[in-house]
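User: Round two. Same drill as before: sequence, then structure, for each protein.

Assistant: Same drill it is. First protein:
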Amino acid sequence: MGGHSVSSMRIIDYYNIVVSILTVGIALFFLGKKVVRQKGGYPEQAAEDCRPARFFVQKEKDRLSALGLVCFFLVFALGCFLRFYHLTTLPDGLNQDEASIGYEAFSLAFYGVDRYGNPFPVYPITWGSGGGSPLLIYLTALSFKLFGVSIFVLRGTVAFFGCLTLPLFYLLVKEAKSSLSGLQSSPTGLLGMLLLAIAPWHILLTRWTLDYGLIPFTFGLAILVLMKAARKKSTGLYVLASALAALNMYSYGSANIVIPAFLLLSVFFLMRGKILSIRQLFLCMLMFLLVCAPLFLFYFINVCKLPEIITPFFSVERFRSDHTASVFLSFSDLFLRGKGIKNSKELLLYLSVGVENGEYYTYMPGYWTFYVFTFPVTLIGFVVSLKRMRKGRRERRPGKSRMRLPIRDPVPILFRGRLQRRRLYFLPSWRPSSSV
């Protein structure tokens, strides 16, 4: 906002100022309540009864009241508006990857072959080196088949799932809040849904058809089911979560690293907390391997340079070229040339003010990747989470599910700096533990 006179201030500048003041005010209000409660000013139950949240939930039930439902649908409508308004012209023109995904989907929808003439590939290689999400390509092909070929339909597929991510995030935050404290969590979920609805990075993500566009929905759905499975210790939900996590392997290239790493950490903490049995783990592994079998076959053929498999019904192709070096940092780049430190710095900037790196389609000078108040609130949340984690270890409360900030995950540092390769980084991760 620096350098803007009052007369030249934009709507977003006024928004940032007002919401920042409100954020500080709300933080001071709850801090004051905590201080008064600790000094014996009023009992804990009285503090809970006087919460403003009571207006949004049914009495003695963790469900939205009539007012809460109205707010829910208003937030959902706002989110849908921001994702569909002038969808074909904002941003104007097609990104080269959008055009590539659209052409591949068009070819598969109406001719049953990809651009190379091979029928229904397990992993469409698009440019020859990949770069296109199989899941998104086939969903777009289905949309073309149902609604015809147009830019609106092309972009509408991702925008549709972007809108579905809003109620999904409500459920995700609600589940996390409920498992943490056992208190009413619907208002917290509603607030999380509102913040995602107006988040600049998610609006940008859902307004064009790029291969990472489905990840917030598909990965969020997998996390939600996994959290419910851990809380209920349900074998069926564990298997379903494993299948959904495997489906993410078809969503974006970097997911092939992030998803297995996430699952390994989850299994470690679930087993340590005795929340997941050996039998359940075996069934989950079996489901994961079953869903990923075609993808593993594709990678096996490419790594071993075996002949392609072309049948009338499906095909397993080989890459025509390799662009690994343009995506991942080499060992020498990471440790000897200082690119790892540079990536860490950019990562911090992405989470705060944005990075002006020449990619005009992901950054506009004067506009942050997030809102002004986002990073300070995130930092406060990170500190509070650490304090709760330490307190939980001391009290050793069994079977609690924790939301853990992804700021501690090093995986994004391995990628060459681009905002779109760090989409998973903006999502909350989850850690179950017997002592946390």
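Second protein:
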Amino acid sequence: MFDIKAFEKATLTQRAFDVPVPGLVEWFGVSDDQREHLATLITSESRDKYAIEIGVVWPVRGLTDDELERCAEDARGNRQKLADVFAEVMQINGADVDEIKEKLGVGESVNARTALRAEHVYRGSVNPISIRVAYKLGRAFPVEFRMLADKIMELSGLGGGRRKKAESLWRDPAIKAALALCDLRGAFLFQTRPDLFPGGKLSQTEIELWGRYHDYRDKQRKRK
């Protein structure tokens, strides 16, 4: 039976996830050595892990039902607005329509699904971006664009989550030892400790633990 009282008392937040985007490394403030090292990595897992280490991630969150509906409405509305704007611009004293399209980051005809993905990325990005940036991302980096949009929908489908458990796991010496071992072997916790990290893929909790681990390791090095 659904526990209504527990549900009402629970503190729920929209789930979030730091999506590794090694393909966008050029637009992150990383060193040349880090960028070059990333380019030498072959497997997607090794590239994603290193991207997380150097902060080449795009934080996204799940959307509420209201936000999803607004995304659908705005996607339809913006496509019509674009068509109207281009029609008007073409009548203005020799205006360069192609140049304006370039500035907007969109084409005259935007696919309905692309428009909806752009709205999802626009609203679901933790660090605020403009809708123009979302469209431009879809045009220039379609793989990363779809990856972000898909993750946002996945998080939305999972619903609101309770407060993170990374802090309690970090207090466990066995987890710190597992992180150190994974670091040496180039592995993930979901591979070595599936009992604690089921699902067979990188989770937000593990990402937070890796962040704590690297901060801890950096502090230890500075003390020496």
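The mean pLDDT is 83.

User: Perfect.
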